Amino acid sequence: MEIARQGGKNELSAQLDLLLLTLHMAQPKNLVKCAPTFRPQAVISMGRLKDRLNDAGFDGIWTAELGYIIRLGAARAIFLSADRSANVVGHTAHLLLEIDETQDVDKEKYAKEFKPMGATTNVTTVLYGTSWDDSTLLEEMKYTNLGLQKRDGIQRHFRFDWQEVARYNPDYLAYVEGEKARLGENHPLFLTQYRLMPIHGGGGFLSPQQRAQLQGEHSRKSRPEPGKVYVAGIDLAGEAEEGEGARLRALKPQQDSTVVTIGEVEFPGGVMAQKQPAVKIVEHYWWTGRKHTELYPQLVDILKNVWRCRRTAVDATGVGQPVASFLKEALGTIVVPFTFTQPSKSELGFNLLAAVNSGRLKMYTGDGSLEYREFWSEMEKARSHYRPSQTIDFYVDPTQGHDDFLMSLALLAEAAGNYSPRSARGTRV
């Protein structure tokens, strides 16, 4: 059962559970439902079923047991975690076996511990979810069912994308149209969560079409313009003991660089329109092998005195942490330290894709510089890898080069997204 995000699959499941418990309340039979996590996912499903039982007039009749069972008469709904470490062996599903968010459930866990729960009863199994990549349990079961349907004509796969849901809910239509404008129709999250189209493996992070969108028509700038707002993204490198600049880059290709990307921020329709800001990349600074102690004063001068940046997102991971702390102490709240973890980097990548897809992020025109060439080299070489639970990794393979300009660009988009201009205050007359 594929239903677009927030399209009603949890409500459908609760209504189905209510019906089965009601029909079999005189029989000691179980339905079993699992979710990738007990808290919050299974707990949310339990709460919804309790509400539906109360709505149906069973308030004061149903009971809760052991923190994971809801009983109506003799019939029981058992809620379990499908986390790999969860101990779930021993339960039997008589009425129904439900797998929620199937795209996030481990295949081996399902095959070894959940599927056998319905062996002695030949129980009906329902797998709910949205698409992700083509390696998930949901995608595997979908193609199995579609194959069986071709043989006997019995429908086993049901699919309701966002457009189908929106036919019955105008508020949902308005919301998803807004998400499409914000993310872009081919953004991985919109593609999978709303269009229900799986991503096929990894591959290039930015397609040729996306790189074309990223190219702007404005010129590079060496100084700010009066009245304009600027933000920055800083990707920090480790220190080196010898050499510096582009010469060291050529001598030691594996040596990372520190890159500062400056962006000019505009709000389409004005500040009060509450739309995501548009960002023009206007300048790059690039150092390879420079000691952080040498960069401190220059970074402060660039951010504070040259560009007067309103927001700066800086890599605060590992060796970057002391630099980020120094900048925050020197510049105050305009500095937003960013620590790279799998979840935070995934969100950073999705936000960067959304900015590119929506046309809100533009690179300056070619100026023949090393920075311009390195920027586009990294954009072309950037790769993506899709992980479980709707997360993404993006990078440049170390054998192909570096990703300093790519990460600095992503941090620039982060800085722009975190910037909230002060609204004018006036007196009501």
Short description:
The chain is an alpha/beta fold. It is built from 14 helices and 17 strands. β16 and β17 (391-395) form a beta hairpin.
Report what the structure shows.
The chain is α/β, with parallel strands linked by helices and 429 residues long. It folds into two domains: 2-165, Rossmann fold, CATH 3.40.50.300; 203-418, Nucleotidyltransferase, domain 5, CATH 3.30.420. 39% of the residues lie in helices and 19% in strands. Strand 4 (69-72) and strand 5 form a beta hairpin. The model is unreliable at 240-254 and 423-429 (pLDDT under 50).
**Helical run tally:** 14
Poorly predicted runs: 240-254, 423-429
Assembly category: single chain
Estimate what percentage of residues fall within beta strands. Answer: 15-25%
CATH class of the largest domain: Alpha Beta
Q: Average the pLDDT over all residues and give the rounded result.
A: 91
What is the topology, as strand order, of the major beta sheet? 3-4-5-2-6-7
Question: What structural keywords apply?
Answer:
17 strands, Rossmann fold, six-stranded mixed beta sheet, Nucleotidyltransferase, domain 5, 14 helices, single chain, alpha/beta, 429 residues, disordered C terminus
